Amino acid sequence: MEVAERFERGEATVDIARELRVTPRSVRRWRQLWRRGGVEALASAGPVAREKLTQRQWEKVAALLDAGPANAGFEDDQRWTLARIAVLIGRTCHVSYTLTGVSKLLDRHGYSWQVPVRRSAERDEKEIAQWREETWPTVERPLTSSAPTSASPTRPDRR
Q1: In 21-144, which residue ranges form alpha helices assigned H by DSSP?
Q2: Which of 7, 33, 106, 154 has the fewest CB within 10 Å, making it most exposed?
Q3: 139 found inside a domain
């Protein structure tokens, strides 16, 4: 609303743009709106991005995301990518999203992108735990070093 006061005082577009750190084009657009509808015309129309999915559709997508890519028909690689999620949304909800839109959608709903640990589908957690307890201690050697124990380059070695 500060810009409306500046328009009323007759301030120059370039000066307003410089002080508000916006482009002169934006100021000219605001001035045109102000001339047509006054201060009310400058009120925010809300966020630009609109949610395309209903709450019910999002819950369905979220359930599929949580179930994993294999359950959604992506068996070759067990990672969710933005492209795959866009395909999933298109298949299940018949709504199209750009990759940026998918990223923003996930962010709005509390999902974060992560690089998953690559694991075999045949992974046996019991076998791994047993190997760690029984075999690894016999293979692991303690670290030994002939270097002085101080890691500080400014501290002289105390011998």
Answers
A1: 24-37, 55-67, 82-93, 99-108, 125-134, 136-139
A2: 154
A3: no
